[in-house]
Each structure stands twice: as C-alpha cells, then as structure tokens.
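Incident log, support desk, overnight shift.

02:14 A customer reports that sequence design results differ from what the structure should imply. Their input is reproduced verbatim below. On-call engineer (initials T.W.) acknowledged and began investigating.
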C-alpha cells in the first residue's frame, strides 16, 4: 500500500486530509471540499488507489460527475496514474449512467431497441403540438419547465394530477400525462427520463435493483451539492444497504437550485448512513489569505449543514479593493 501511495503522491502530493479521504473505503464518506481544495484529485487518486491495490476490480467502480468534459478529464487523469487494468471502469455523468441502465433494462422501462432521446427542442415541439398550437412560446417553455421540475422532484404524471389544487395546475398535469403518452408512442425518452426511468425501474423491481447493487463495489460522486431529488434517490437505490460511497461536495458552492439542485442532500447523507464519516478539505491552493478571509466572512452568513474555514499558505496577498 505504501509503495503505491508514494508513487501516486510523488506526482500529485496529497495533504493529510486528502490522504485520509483516498484511503477510507470501508464506510460511507462525505468529503466536504472547499473551493480550490483539490477535490477532483481526491476522486481520481481514490479510483487509482482502489484499482492499484486490487481492493476492487475497475469494473466495480463507478464515478459520477455532472458534465461530459469533467468525466473525460477524470478518465484521462486516472489512466495516467495507473498502468493496471481499467477495463470496465465507469466514469460518466448521471444521465449517461441512467442511459446505460435503460439500455440494459429495456423491457422493464417499457422501451424498444433503438429508442430515441429527445432534446429540449424536441420536447418543446411535442408540447406545442399538444397545446393545440397558437400558444405563446413563453407559455410552451413554462409548461416544459414545469414538467421537468415535476420529474426532478420525483413526481409522476399521475401524482401531479392528484396534487393539482386548481384549474391551472390540473391543466398542466393533464399536459404532463399527454406528453408522457406521446413519448411512449414515439419510443422516446427526454433528458429528465434518463434519471426518472432508471429510478422507477430500481424502485419497482427488486431483482433488477439487487443486480445493479451487486455490480457497484464503490460509487464516487463529484459536486454532490448539485444533486436533485431524483438523483439522490437513484444513488440510494444503487447503493442499497452496503454503503460503498464517496460523496464530494460543498453546500457553499451550490449554484443550481434553479434547476432542482438540493444542497441539503449533503445533510440527508447523515440521516441515511448512520456511520457516515466526514472529512473536511479546508486547505485552499488557489487564493491568498485576504481573499479567503473575506470569503469566509461572507460565507459565515449562510445557513450551513457543516462548518468549515478555508486557509492558504500563499501569504496574505494584495489588499482587497472595493470597486
């Protein structure tokens, strides 16, 4: 173990907290990573650690992030770190992982081979047709956002109907029902369905759920503060009772609440995993002392699930000017 860690750290030195996060693999772990604290390095080096020491085969490791670019960069960094077998290693976005599940579980998803993935323009076109034409573009867009919000909150079309409290909400829910019916007729899914459908399949089919849980020896998730409700529930079902999880995130860096992100998902981990360990990365490698002092002062005004205090070895830096 010491020789592998030394080889990896000689190229990418780790501080004590980063090292602890890389080595911890026997219980669920939340890495509370402040800005500029080297969180991506922790994930890539942990993957190298798990494979290089033969703790797990690459085929049982799944790492999830939010953009294809980040996934490609993570894959490239891991490949440079280890010369061992990385066949079967999954580093992808949430939606790519969901697509992989759907392609394996076509029948359970109610899909046929070669199903289509609708992008935002395709969805808008279908919704506009269902609204009988003549609708303003902003009204069509609003209905599209409403349906997307329901899906991201794990609310099905039938549930939306039941929850409707007035005529306007009932009309939107009716459109949601018709939209889902149209997608099925086209043998298509939209972008949100790449998370919603796998979640539904895992929730409703114990045998499929157990099969996928057995395939995942360790699940690593980047930018955890940006997960929404369906993504959180998908993670929980993929993990099951054997919590082989490393979640990396920071509630102070959440910027996607407008599209359903829930930074409180960080705190939910404490409730769902009683033996959750929390490691804080507070050593900032990017900014000087005055910048961090100012940032810490501002961030202190926000509500926190976890407290942290960023610090730097780069000196005080130039005085901050307000312009």
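02:41 Re-run completed on a clean worker. Output:
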């Amino acid at each position: 173990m010491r020789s592998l860690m030394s080889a990896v750290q000689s190229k990418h030195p780790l501080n004590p907290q980063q090292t602890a996060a890389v080595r911890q693999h026997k219980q669920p772990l939340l890495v509370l990573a402040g800005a500029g604290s080297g969180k991506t390095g922790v994930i890539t080096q942990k993957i190298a650690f798990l494979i290089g020491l033969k703790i797990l085969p690459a085929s049982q490791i799944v790492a999830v992030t939010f953009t294809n670019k980040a996934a490609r960069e993570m894959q490239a960094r891991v490949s440079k770190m280890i010369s061992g077998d990385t066949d079967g290693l999954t580093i992808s976005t949430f939606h790519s992982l969901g697509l992989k599940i759907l392609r394996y579980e076509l029948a359970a998803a109610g899909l046929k081979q070669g199903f289509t993935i609708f992008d935002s323009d395709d969805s808008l076109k279908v919704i506009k047709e269902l609204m009988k034409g003549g609708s303003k573009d902003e009204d069509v867009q609003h209905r599209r956002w409403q349906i997307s919000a329901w899906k991201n909150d794990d609310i099905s079309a039938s549930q939306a109907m039941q929850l409707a409290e007035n005529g306007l909400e009932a009309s939107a829910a009716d459109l949601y029902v018709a939209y889902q019916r149209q997608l099925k007729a086209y043998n298509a899914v939209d972008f949100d369905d790449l998370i919603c459908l796998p979640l539904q399949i895992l929730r409703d089919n114990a045998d499929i759920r157990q099969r996928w849980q057995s395939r995942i020896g360790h699940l690593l998730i980047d930018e955890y503060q940006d997960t929404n409700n369906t993504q959180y529930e998908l993670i929980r079902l993929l993990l099951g009772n054997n919590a082989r999880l490393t979640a990396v995130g920071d509630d102070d860096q959440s910027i996607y609440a407008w599209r359903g992100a829930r930074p409180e998902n960080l705190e939910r981990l404490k409730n769902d995993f009683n033996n959750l360990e929390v490691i804080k990365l507070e050593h900032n490698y990017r900014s000087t002392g005055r910048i961090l002092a100012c940032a810490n002062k501002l961030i202190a005004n926000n509500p926190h699930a976890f407290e942290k205090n960023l610090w730097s070895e780069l000196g005080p830096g130039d005085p901050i000017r307000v312009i």
